[in-house]
Specification:
Chain B: Belongs to the RNase PH family. The complex is a heterodimer. Chain A is an all-beta fold. Chain A contains no helices and 16 strands. Chain B has a 5-stranded mixed sheet. Classes of the chains: A mainly beta, B alpha+beta.
Chain lengths: 194, 245
């Protein structure tokens, strides 16, 4: 790889007519400036102009953004909502936990009024969810599991063993063979072991 | 003050510098691995340590979250051994609170907070040895720490304290000069655009001299920015060598 150029915050990289700004840069008076200390990366995305961005070796803290798939752990449940701690955004672990809420009406896409959070999540479950809103001043991130691929991925039974999903709404404990209700995420075909 | 000549006839100051000469600046980035960003900076005999955490979820009073940008929380403190006489109250006194507020205002101008809504960035600065220009050294150290943490900024923030003696502006004041009855002005600048982030002065100065003093401060800040630039580029080189790029 050709040696990449070092840049520091405030460095003028190029004019806005030559490139499209990516991450780690900002636009001012028709020129693109760097906002991070790192390496300049120019990528040709196939459109007319290349995308210019600045990258660092260590990834900066990522914040959950609207529409991102996050992995979270349920901390408490309530007839109206479930409170979670967001642990991963996509596949990047967060250094610090963010708090989120999954409301009763966002658990499922169908029959939203008949949802019982006790039968969808339990404290300690690992859940895949999508961010729908950053929330207002008082509330946390609002998440939803109202899709087939979202929901509980890892849950432990009351006996303490990790449960196996048997349908979209039930999981079974391998030790006691008792079934428990959860809103289960559909396992992606590539993750199923042959 | 009898016997203490801040600027001799030959143009030398108390520590042998010329009027526009800055003190020796040495800095290191990434001194702590636990924090997201950290830097240690020495300007002459003034030594400061800056540590940055964030951006992370708002802690403490949730009502202070801003829906469209990050909140910058600054804390300035001096070590008890930093001054000639042991400091009795390092935190919470009026001067520390005022400094913390100034630092917050300075960094809110430079850090691109609108990229991190509803989160908080903490900047903690501690003066380990105080020999004048405390605010400026803190700003310079905090700039390096923020860059080390990878938080996007518009430009460096460089600060310098200047004073006016015998119709001459003195750049980068030391403790003896600050307390020697010099009208001192602290300026924090974004060097590339020439934009002033903060200007602070609480002494008496004739308005005719203000223009020259600000000019001198801006030149001094640009000098500081060159040194900081060197430090950042060297740190990047070292980091890239370690990761084998």
């Amino acid at each position: 790889m050709s040696p990449m150029k070092l840049c520091v915050p405030g460095d003028k990289l190029c004019s806005a007519e030559d490139c499209i700004p990516g991450t780690g840069v900002y636009l001012r008076h028709g020129y693109i400036y760097s906002s991070l200390a790192g390496y300049v990366l120019r990528k040709n995305e196939g459109e007319e102009l290349p995308v210019i961005s600045v990258v660092r070796e260590t990834e900066t803290q990522l914040l959950p953004d609207v529409g991102a798939i996050v992995t979270c752990k349920v901390t408490s449940i309530n007839p109206r909502f479930a409170k979670v701690h967001i642990l991963y955004v996509g596949s990047t672990p967060l250094k610090d936990r963010f708090r989120g809420t999954i409301r009763k009406e966002d658990v499922r896409a169908t029959e939203k009024d008949k949802v019982e959070t006790y039968k969808s999540f339990r404290p300690g479950d690992i859940v895949l969810a999508k961010v729908i809103s950053l929330g207002d001043v008082q509330s946390n991130y609002l998440l939803t599991t109202a899709e087939n691929e979202l929901g509980v991925v890892v849950a432990h039974s009351e006996a303490g063993a990790q449960m196996v999903p048997i349908s979209w709404c039930e999981m079974q404990c391998p030790l006691t063979h008792s079934k428990e209700f959860r809103k289960v995420a559909r396992v992606q075909p590539e993750y199923l072991q042959a | 003050m009898a016997g203490l000549e801040l600027l001799s006839d030959q143009g030398y100051r108390l520590d042998g510098r010329k009027a526009t000469e800055l003190r020796k600046l040495q800095a290191r980035m990434g001194v702590f691995t636990q924090a997201d960003g950290s830097a240690y900076l020495e300007q002459g005999n003034t030594k400061a340590l800056a540590v940055v955490y964030g951006p992370h979820e708002m802690r403490g009073s949730r009502s202070r979250t801003l829906h469209d940008r990050a909140v910058i929380n600054c804390q300035y403190s001096m070590a008890t051994f930093s001054t000639a006489e042991r400091k009795r109250r390092p935190h919470g006194d009026r001067k520390s609170t005022e400094m913390s507020l100034h630092l917050k205002q300075t960094f809110e101008a430079a850090v691109m907070t609108q990229l991190y809504p509803r989160s908080q960035i903490d900047i903690y600065v501690k003066i380990l040895q105080s020999d004048g220009g405390n605010y400026s050294v803190c700003v310079n150290a905090a700039t390096l720490a923020v860059i080390d943490a990878g938080i996007p900024m518009r430009d460096y923030v460089c600060a310098c304290t200047v004073g006016f003696v015998d119709e001459t502006p003195l750049a980068d004041l030391c403790y003896a000069e600050e307390n020697g009855g010099v009208s001192s002005l602290a300026l924090a600048l974004l060097p590339r655009g020439g934009q002033i982030a903060l200007l602070q002065m609480d002494a008496r100065l004739h308005q005719d001299h203000l223009e020259t003093l600000i000019e001198a401060a801006m030149t001094a800040c640009k000098g500081v920015s060159k040194v900081l630039d060197e430090v950042v580029r060297q740190h990047l080189q070292e980091a890239s060598v370690l990761t084998g790029e």
